[in-house]
Design brief:
The complex is a heterodimer of chains A (207) and B (183). In chain A, helix 2 (50-68) packs antiparallel against helix 7, helix 3 (87-94) runs antiparallel to helix 4 (98-127) and helix 4 packs antiparallel against helix 5. Chain A has helices spanning 5-8, 50-68, 87-94, 98-127, 133-145, 151-166, 175-193, 196-203; strands at 11-13, 20-22, 32-33, 40-42, 72-76, 79-83, 170-173. Chain A is an alpha+beta fold. Chain A has two domains: 1-46, no CATH class; 47-202, Butyryl-CoA Dehydrogenase, subunit A, domain 3. A three-stranded antiparallel sheet of chain A has the order 6-5-7. In chain A, strands 1-2 form a two-stranded antiparallel sheet. In chain A, strands 3-4 form a two-stranded antiparallel sheet. Helices cover 60% and strands 8% of the residues of chain B. In chain B, helix 1 (23-43) packs antiparallel against helix 6 (152-169) and helix 3 crosses helix 4 (109-122). The chains are: A alpha+beta (207), B mainly alpha (183). Chains A and B meet through strand 5, strand 6, helix 3, helix 4 and helix 5 of A and helix 3, helix 4, helix 5, strand 3 and helix 6 of B.
């Protein structure tokens, strides 16, 4: 990795307005915005890697509980039905809505798992100082996953569906539901404490 | 002089490109498909609910109306925002951005960039209704109270959400600033 002023104050192009600019040194608590269009270029100095790692590992555990334990139960005149988080995926598939089923499965179930697992693996490797090519692939994978992880939106959808169903029957959230809430909080916290640019720098800049 | 091979980023190895690939046409094509599908997404029913005694086919708007009529207007407002306002906003705003670039009309790039950031951020919230459909199906899968089937509108709506997300992602905001740099 090149040492000296150029590495400390890199020259970049703004991804939104394309203006070439040299980033100043970041003071404590300072963010760096594009001088022309004020896009966020570098966020505040992030907490140490242990923080997002612990949050991500806790999130993975919550993901497991959310998917494996009962999610929502419905009580209608004594007859009770219990469904799991991925129950809708199964039901959609059985009805022949394969694309819809896959979409819900990917955005609500699989993507959060892949993202948290990938982040955890990357952070574990980075903390141990292991630099492999896998790191860069992992970071690029995370960038690709981007907008497709939406556990929070899944939760809101659950609340809307629950409210709609509550008109007809008694709704009982299970431990899976509580785990989903925890997962959303943890997932959001991981993103709040993780700085991707810092990860890229740690992953090394060899061509 | 040897022909240059693909340049790669020194940090991550991704291929370097001047701008996002596809140009205006990729974003416009995705947007057009989404706009066309938006009509059946709202006209065709999202869900078919069969309760003992009667059946109903609910479109997105009917579902929102029912929420308001049952007194749960807060939930109705959330669904209205996510399923009507957000997709429409994305379609209209992206359409205007693309139109402005295509006609090369002189403009102040900063507010347009802000509009772009807005639609980029709120895009996935429209997925709420898709999750609602899937969850409602899972709850009545055993047919004890009612049986619920997704309608054709559900697939159309999910397609609109995905297409608009892709359309916004393929839009290159740097194009908005080109005119400024040419002067």
């Amino acid at each position: 990795m090149p040492k000296g002023a150029k590495a400390v104050r890199p020259r970049i192009r703004c991804p939104d307005c394309d203006l070439a600019q040299r980033l100043p040194l970041r003071g404590p608590g300072h963010r760096l915005l594009c001088v022309r269009c004020r896009r966020l270029l570098r966020g505040r100095a992030p907490p140490p890697l242990e923080v997002p790692l612990c949050l991500a590992l806790a999130g993975l555990w919550m993901w497991l509980i959310a998917n494996v334990t009962p999610f929502l139960s419905l009580d209608y005149r004594g007859a009770s039905t219990t469904s799991y988080l991925a129950g809708g995926v199964e039901a959609l598939w059985e009805q022949g809505f394969y694309l819809l089923s896959s979409l819900v499965f990917f955005t609500g179930v699989l993507a959060p798992l892949l993202e948290l697992a990938c982040i955890s693996a990357l952070l574990i490797l980075l903390r141990r100082g292991l630099r492999t090519r896998g790191l860069k692939l992992g970071l690029r994978f995370l960038t690709a996953l981007g907008p497709w992880t939406m556990p929070g939106i899944f939760l809101v959808g659950t609340l809307v569906a629950g409210v709609k169903m509550a008109q007809m029957a008694l709704m009982l959230p299970g431990s899976g539901f509580a785990a989903l809430v925890a997962l959303v909080v943890l997932w959001t916290s991981v993103h709040a404490t993780l700085d991707f640019d810092a990860l890229w720098e740690l992953a090394g800049a060899e061509p | 002089m040897p022909a240059p091979t693909r340049l790669r980023c020194a940090r991550c190895g991704a291929a370097l490109r001047f701008r996002k690939p596809g140009g205006l046409s990729r974003s416009a094509a995705l947007l057009l498909s989404a706009a066309i599908l938006y009509v059946p997404a709202n006209l065709l029913p999202l869900l078919h609910i069969h309760v003992v005694g009667h059946s109903e086919a609910d479109t997105i708007l009917v579902g929102i109306e029912e929420l308001f009529l049952s007194g749960m207007w807060e939930v109705g407002a959330v669904v209205f925002f996510a399923s009507i306002v957000v997709p429409m906003l994305k379609i209209v705003v992206l359409g205007l951005l693309l139109l402005g670039l295509w006609r090369r009309s002189p403009h102040d790039p900063l507010p347009r960039t802000r509009w772009y950031r807005l639609i980029e951020g709120i895009g996935r919230w429209s997925m709420i209704d898709v999750f609602v459909v899937s969850l409602m199906m899972s709850l009545v899968a055993f047919g004890s109270i009612a049986s619920i089937e997704p309608g054709a509108g559900a697939t159309c709506f999910a397609a609109v959400v995905v297409l608009t997300i892709l359309a916004v992602r393929s839009f290159e905001p740097r194009d908005l600033w080109d005119a400024m740099e040419e002067t």
